[in-house]
Amino acid sequence: MVDQWVLNAQQWVNSQYGAVPGYVPAPENGKTGWPTMYSLTRALQHELGLSASQMSDSFGPTTLALVTSQLGNIGPASPQNIVTIVQCGLYCKGYDGSDLSQVYDGRTATSVGQMRQNMGFADGVNSLAPKEFKALLTMDAYVVVENGSAAVRSVQQWLNRTYVSRSWASIIPCDGHFSRDVQKMLVYALQEELAVAGANGNLGPGTRGALQQRAPLTVGSHDTGSSVFVRLFQAAMIFNGYQVAFDGAYSQDVANQVTGFQEFVALPVTSTGDYQTWASLLVSNGDPNRRGTACDTIAAIIPERGAALYQAGYRYIGRYLTNTPGGTLNKQIQPGELDSLFAAGLRVFPIYETNSTSVGYFTTDQGTSDAITILQATRGYGFPHGTTVYCAVDYDALDGDVVAAIIPYFQAIKRSVDYWGYPFRIGVYGPRNICSRLSAAGLTATSFVADLSTGFSGNLGFPMPRNWAFDQIATISVGSGSGALQIDNNIASGRDFGQGSVNAPSGVPDTLFNAQYRGSLGVDMAEYCADVPSNTTGLIHGVQDAIDVTLNYDTLITHIAISYGIRKALVQAEVFWEYWKQTPADPLADVVVESTYAWMVAEEEWEKEPIGEPPTPPLVTDEDASTGIAQIFAATAIRARNWAVAQGLIPGGQLDAGDWHVVWSVWQSLHDDGMYNIGTVPLVLFEGAAEVGVSGIRLDYTIDERQRIFARYNGTGPDAASYGEQLDGVYGIFERYNALSRQVV
């Protein structure tokens, strides 16, 4: 929406400075933002006498020094244009700018005083100091925004008023969010407390050494005199999301919260404010000398290296599923390597990374393609169904990249694994912000955190993701001689134990259908369907149509088969047969269900506000009917999916079959989404197999087992048994040409 006063500010600064060399006009859209702040900054620089070549979007040290020397505190005696720039900035910040009166009047003073109070200053001053002028011309907020924390804001305000006079200090946001600028301010404050020479806002060797020399904070420690050491520790705890008092006293409650933090980040539990706890609170890699039990490497693990890793205390190792196409580095798991790892007592967590080092890589098409590559690689190595694979985001992605590219990329991967029955769980390797954002979006199970990259903007000022499994903190060398190798040292949280074994190959997996066999398949299937004793009266689809629909979903069905380790003909047979056997009664039944729920939804809305007569129910109602390509009832799908969840075959919670909203939602998915419908077929088959005593999910079902599985899809009794026999014939025809396709590949 257009803010008229922001628009007025944009129009004023453009009209006043539009012809000035070096000035960049503000967008006249009535929306506050960095471009407008940059225009106001350039206007100020012109007023300070800077030339076109000296002007920039940055309110840097030169601009600040000139404001200090030429203007001092901005107030009633300040130049008219300077006052108007302040008033424009106030409007852009959401404060009253006194109608751009160009006079530092009472309204302007009140707004400045209010903003300063929000920044944390309680001195009642209504003039604007140079650093405050700089803060005015930013997009920083000084009130809680976007679900920010009031406790975090209180600490931000305290940091501002305590340290604003220091040469290194700038005014930080007071928006209730931990951020890069807030992080640096806290470290600067700690460096002053520790009297670290050459303070720079980074937790470098000098600051680490000074922290190590300080005695740990314990219950009873408290600030005295000018020391604020305890308060700074409490600030770090609050910034990391822990609810402690901000009073300078290390109480038992603080100790209890520290215990929780130490447990969360897998530190030794001391309940004290010791060096390692300080480090983990202040910088992403914490104490880089801390030895973990997990590691990752691009090097192949031969027996000597496996023994060296185990001897060094490592139990989990991350290895790569593939090489980078076109790359020269051979980093993928090598033949026989997994046996060496397992023999050494190590467990493996797979990593997937190719060219994921810039935003251009992350597209929905790439996500879909990568899901296929990961599926084939995990099955090729024999990783069990449900193994977590860590997909890499190996660069310092900006927040805009996360929204525009990275989340859609992971959504594409998740869509694929949803349809395939979750052959692998999705993890992410990346900076903290990315890991947390993807977890919050429900796209990843666990995170492998790239905390080694301490300078990444996605790590600075972001707490550890709640679902972290592995924390990469340092690159080190272990072993000697033939056992020597370089690794990244990782801390393990226990959320992912990797895999201690893989499945031996049980047969050649299916491949995509070879189109050269389409004609022969059609002839054989037509002959079979003409001979098999089944109802063909009133069918609305022909045999060739049913084959075409089945083959249209061949990519999906192939990946379902690879995912579960079954023959794709098992799914093809059901899809073909159920589609071929549809009659006019089936779409009519769908209409009845749709009209039933249309009435139920309308009635529910009417009950919220019962004005007038309630909606009239249809003459015929039905809350469920077999629907979609494979003709599945919602109740059947819910039962099968709940069974699969209970077996650990797919993730998620139990669906409530007694809630009509759930039934309607599932029915709509079955009816509208062919991928969902076909993706449900194997779950119905597997549940039925378990019910009739066919054990396991495998490639080598016998004829009798297949017929019993197919029969249960249709029901029980003689008719179902006949259905099973008929379907097994269809299975045989599809499998004949699937086998030929496998041989061609």
Structure description:
The chain has about 750 residues and is of the alpha/beta class. The chain has four domains: about 1-140, no CATH class; about 145-285, no CATH class; about 295-490, Glycosidases (TIM Barrel), CATH 3.20.20.80; about 510-745, no CATH class. Helices cover about 50% and strands about 5% of the residues. It has 27 helices and eight strands. It has helices spanning about 5-15, 35-45, 60-70, 80-95, 105-120, 130-135, 150-165, 180-195, 205-215, 230-240, 250-265, 275-280, 305-310, 335-345, 365-380, 400-420, 430-440, 520-530, 545-550, 555-565, 570-580, 585-610, 635-645, 660-670, 675-690, 705-715, 720-745; strands spanning about 295, 315-320, 345-350, 385-390, 425-430, 445-450, 470-480, 485-490. An eight-stranded mixed barrel has the order 1-2-3-4-5-6-7-8, surrounded by five helices. Strand 2, helix 14 and strand 3 (about 345-350) form a beta-alpha-beta unit. Helix 25 packs across helix 26. The longest helix has 27 residues, at about 720-745. About 45% of the residues are buried. The model has no long low-confidence stretch (mean pLDDT about 95).
Query: Uncertain runs with pLDDT below 50, 5 residues or more?
Result: none
Average pLDDT, all residues: 96
User: How many individual helices?
Assistant: 27
What radius of gyration results from the CA coordinates?
A: 33 Å
Strand content: 5-15%
Strand order of the largest sheet: 1-2-3-4-5-6-7-8
Helix fraction, binned, reads: 40-55%
Q: How many distinct folded domains?
A: 4
Distance between the termini: 58 Å
Shape, principal axes of CA atoms: globular
Structural class: alpha/beta
